[in-house]
Amino acid sequence: MTDYSEKFNFDITPEYFQRKNSYPYSPYQISLLFSNYERYNDYIPRRIEENYKKLDKKYIDKLPFKYEDKVKKVQEGMNINQQFFSKIASLYMNKFNYVQLSEKDIADFQHGEMNFVGKLYLELLTREWAEEGKEEREKTITPVIKELKSYYDYENKSIMNKGVNVLVIGARFGRVVYELAKLGYNVEANEKSYFYTMVANYLFNYSKEKELCICPRISSFCSSFTEESVTRKHHIPDVDIFADLKNVKSEQIKITKEDFEVEYKNIKDKFDCVITVFSTDEYKNLISFTEKVNQVLKKGGIWINIGGLNSIYSEYGGIDLTWDELKHVILNSGFDLKMEAKPVVPYCKIEGHSLPFTLGAIFFTAQKK
After folding, report:
1. Which percentage of the chain shows pLDDT scores above 70?
2. Which residues of 326-342 are buried (b: 16+ CB within 10 A; e: fewer)?
3. Alpha helix stretches (DSSP H) within 10-119
4. What's the rounded Cα separation, in Å, for the pair 327 and 264?
5. What is the model's pTM?
6. Is the Cα torsion angle 263, 366, 189, 111 positive or negative in sign?
7. What is the longest distance spanned by two Cα atoms in the chain?
8. Domain 14-368 belongs to what topology?
């Protein structure tokens, strides 16, 4: 591991955890989950092997490969992922071992979250920090930053000397934060999940360019054109974060880890811009969310959003709004709508996959009156 001091403060400490009382989604729980990634996913190569063994030999002989070799490749990919997760976990395990949890508590939590970590999590990480995610970033993050520049041009010294304060809600692994900080904006990143901030902390403070390796699609042979598309290794991060941010002062990047509506309950007129990139779907009530965004913005400040219109909590009390309905809410919450578009964008695109995942997104800029 690179011997850097932590320049950017993600505040993943026992003191913070005790103060916020975030159980069960604590750094300790997630470190245990990361440490046992391979153990809790061992059913994947086992299931593949068992299914082939059920075939009559006359069918196995028609295959262009030995199924044992496929199982071995899956196991190797999982081992690569385990090495990645172990590096992250090693930063935190000794800090948080004071938490007293029963074996049942740990097992229940890990089984409940492993499906996410085993699949979509690594694909999201690839989307943000691998070369293979460049196309998706150019169609989602790049337009958002271009829109921000049209209001607060980073090349205009008179604007930047005053300081442009940007709040990123749902920062995940921090790619948007990195891109904004590199340009000189003051960035406050709100991310309530340690699943993301623990990895982001490692990337921002300890990683070297392409030093980490993951196999995000190792369990997804279904609907793939080639085996290589499933077993391919992805190297992250695709940039030298530490070097690119060497002139960025530590106070230019701030992290908050409570739910947005809780963390900013009493914050008013603070930010020049709020950015949401595929993160509004994590809120049950987009009406109250919209009101809160308006509250934290300065007069004339802008909200730039790109993402879907669904709520992941729609089956658990969340509401789904059409764009016409959400637009009505925005206009009646103290905003003028300055721009709207409906781009079709890739999301966790898998090269060599016969079922490409694209989304009809809504891209808009709203300005506080």
Report:
1. 85
2. bbebbeebbbeeeeeee
3. 14-20, 27-35, 37-40, 43-53, 57-60, 67-90, 103-118
4. 23
5. 0.91
6. positive
7. 75
8. Rossmann fold (3.40.50)
